[in-house]
Amino acid sequence: MFSGIVEETAEVVRIERDGSNVNLTMKCSFVDELKIDQSVAHNGVCLTVVSLNPDGTYTVTAVQETLDRSNLGDLKPGSLVNLERSMKMDGRLDGHIVQGHVDTTAICTAVEPLDGSWYYSFKYDFKPELAAKGYVTVEKGSITVNGVSLTVCDPEADSFRVAIIPYTHDHTNFKEIKEGTKVNLEFDIIGKYIARISSLSN
């Protein structure tokens, strides 16, 4: 379980294919605090630490379904990835409830400067059957973009905007997002449960 509050960005050091899986080796400041089998969100995708390496890096494995549903398959050595370790139960929930299960990807359609901040617009494939399951955005609701908990502005059936403050821009990989960039989306789990309960009560 995560909160969508990114701790830092990690640099991809190595990418290795292992059948249909991809092993991602990363470098970050808290490698020495990680443990084998620990869950860490990478661009919002919950992955398990499978090795701690002598060169001060760690490795996680992404399976084919994860690669199909997310932007992890687009990563290259040198790419920056948003990291968040799992939430402590005795801590404050500063973002919102995030599972680390990416639902789909979206494409950035615009980046608009806003007197020191930015509006980022995103568009995703609208599917009525998924919308009925809660894969939607609502005004002032929560959305996770590349693992970052954000508030939705101007939602449409297949698009939305978010406002990014300088701190978020500088401390996540939002600084690398531009028009045409693919990002990971996780819709609000509370909305999914409400949609499911409503469908069963009809």
Condensed summary:
By secondary structure, this protein is mostly beta strands. It has four helices and twelve strands; from the N terminus they run E-E-E-E-E-H-E-E-E-H-E-E-E-H-E-H. A hairpin with a 2-residue loop joins strand 3 and strand 4.
Structure description:
This protein is mostly beta strands and 202 residues long. It is 14% helix and 40% strand. The chain contains 4 helices and 12 strands, in the order βββββαβββαβββαβα. The protein has helices spanning 64-69, 128-131, 166-171, 189-201, and strands spanning 8-18, 21-27, 39-42, 45-52, 58-62, 80-85, 104-114, 117-123, 142-145, 148-153, 159-164, 182-187. The chain is globular and about 55 Å long. The model has no long low-confidence stretch (mean pLDDT 95).
Percent range for helical residues? 10-25%
The stretches of 5 or more residues where confidence is low (pLDDT under 50) are: none
Number of helices: 4
Mean pLDDT: 95
Task: Please report the total strand number as a whole number.
Answer: 12
List the helices and strands and how they pair.
Layout: E1 8-18, E2 21-27, E3 39-42, E4 45-52, E5 58-62, H1 64-69, E6 80-85, E7 104-114, E8 117-123, H2 128-131, E9 142-145, E10 148-153, E11 159-164, H3 166-171, E12 182-187, H4 189-201
Antiparallel strand pairs: 1-2, 1-6, 2-5, 3-4, 3-6, 4-5, 7-8, 7-12, 8-11, 9-10, 9-12, 10-11
